[in-house]
Specification:
With about 425 residues, the protein is an alpha+beta fold. It folds into three domains: about 210 residues, Rossmann fold (3-Layer(aba) Sandwich); about 80 residues, Translation factors (Elongation Factor Tu (Ef-tu), domain 3, Beta Barrel), CATH 2.40.30.10; about 100 residues, Elongation Factor Tu (Ef-tu), domain 3, CATH 2.40.30.10. Helices cover about 20% and strands about 35% of the residues. The structure holds guanosine-5'-triphosphate and magnesium ion.
């Protein structure tokens, strides 16, 4: 196992801007994917009438993804640089699959935002930037892609960069000393991915590989109590029920007494596996599968959160949150019941009180407004106060196929 610090790196941005191609190219340039594999994908893509998707196919493995030339679900790929051990999470950009992007972004420590220079800031560029901010992604790198399509025009690069900076600053990125890097690339041609490209003599910054290698090590979340949101539950012969997910905070070891909330199932942690190997301890950031004595498939589901019996995950009857409304066709009033996406859970919640940030009662809020709200989940849900466990304290609100708002939890009324 790697001794390098681990982090999850999401690749985000509008549909078709070249996210999967960039990941595929990066893996190819660094030797993680061999040339004959790309050649095979090129043939396959051409046969499907999807010429140009050979690098995207490295990450797009589903039959439907390859036929349509669109990423549908997130895909993970482990990757090393000199300083880090990354899990790259390639996210879908299409608006129908934002739900999957939220799952990817909520696992990520940092992200590469891909913006195609010939299309600029597009709807899901905005939506993804907004979501990554509220879901707690600390570090962003911006790849201005498809520079080959604009003949590596520096003016065009600066124009798009200016628009992206406006967007980033509107949600709180690019502040003070924490300036976001902008890298002109051609993911398809391989320029500025691993090495500096001679096509952009006017650019003297790092390549994508150099930039991600320079990312800071994420702060250690192992000191907080164990929180592991369940992503899936498998039955594996010889082992039994195996829930899987990412350790968001804390550590877990066989022998620990654990509880799944809100279901309340408890037991002793029997074994933990990572990358098909049994391990003695899992820490914040690890993606694991595990087995708990006495807990069967019907006791656990996606959205449950695992924690220690003596510091169980908090189950909310009601909670107060600070939200920002990103878009809504009309206005939001008390009684509105959209779906909240928090860690791996999705639950409808009813707005019960709406005030401004100072606490003055409001009749309604609309796109662009910040507010404090009390909401009631329609069934108990695990959520934490963001100042205590930020990893479990953020959520996105979705309705009618788009992200309406995002926010973080500031107070909880427990069940
Ligand atoms: N000319 C040019 N085309 C590119 C470049 N990068 C990607 N493309 C093309 O853009 C199209 C979409 O690429 P993808 O990598 O699938 O885009 P994506 O952002 O992953 O798309 P979704 O995952 O569906 O949101 C493909 O036809 C690629 O060949 C580039 O640098 N230059
Ligand atoms: Mg893709």
């Amino acid at each position: 196992m790697s001794e390098k610090p681990h982090q999850n790196l999401a690749v985000i941005g509008h549909v078709d801007h070249g996210k999967s191609t960039l990941v595929g190219r990066l893996l190819f340039e660094t030797g993680a994917v061999e040339k004959h594999v790309i050649d095979q994908y090129r043939k396959e893509a051409e046969e499907l009438g999807k010429g140009g998707f050979e690098f995207a196919y490295v990450m797009d493995n589903l039959k439907e993804e390859r036929e349509r030339g669109v990423t549908i679900d997130i895909a993970h790929q482990d990757f090393h640089t000199d300083n880090h051990y990354f899990t790259i999470v390639d996210c879908p950009g299409h608006r129908d699959f934002v739900k999957n992007m939220i799952t990817g972004a909520s696992q990520a420590d940092s992200a590469i935002l891909v913006v195609a220079v010939d299309d600029g800031v597009a709807p899901q560029t905005q939506e993804h930037v907004f979501l990554s901010r509220t879901l707690g992604i600390g570090e962003l790198i911006v790849a201005i892609n498809k520079m080959d399509k604009e003949n590596w025009d520096e003016g065009k690069f600066n124009e798009v960069k200016g628009k992206v900076i406006e967007l980033l600053e509107s949600v709180g990125y690019n502040k003070g000393d924490e300036k976001v890097l902008f890298i002109p690339v051609s993911a398809f041609e391989g320029d500025n991915i691993k090495e500096a490209s001679s096509n952009a003599p006017w650019y003297d910054g790092p390549s994508i590989l150099e930039a991600i290698n320079d990312l800071p090590v994420p702060k250690d979340a192992t000191d907080a109590p164990l929180r592991l949101p369940i992503q899936d539950v498998y039955t594996i012969s010889g082992i039994g029920t195996v829930p899987v997910g990412r350790v968001e905070t804390g550590t877990m070891k066989p022998g620990m007494k654990v509880v799944f909330q809100p279901s309340g199932a408890t037991g002793e942690l029997k074994s933990i596996e990572m990358h098909h190997q049994e391990i003695a301890e899992a820490r914040a950031g690890d993606n694991v599968g595990f087995n708990v004595r006495g807990v069967g498939k019907e006791d656990v589901r996606r959205g449950d959160v695992l924690g220690p019996v003596d510091k169980p995950p908090t189950v909310a009857k009601r909670f107060k949150a600070q939200i920002i409304v990103m878009q809504h066709p009309s206005v939001i009033t008390v009684g509105y019941t959209p779906v909240f996406h928090a860690h791996t859970s999705q639950v409808a919640c009813t707005f019960e009180e709406i005030t401004d940030i100072q606490g003055k009662s409001l009749d309604f809020i609309k796109a662009g407004d910040a507010a404090l709200v009390w909401v009631r989940p329609q069934k108990p849900v695990v959520i934490e106060v963001a100042s205590e466990i930020p990893e479990l304290g953020a959520f996105a609100i979705r309705d009618m196929g788009s992200t309406i708002a995002a926010g973080k939890v500031i107070e909880i009324e427990e069940v």
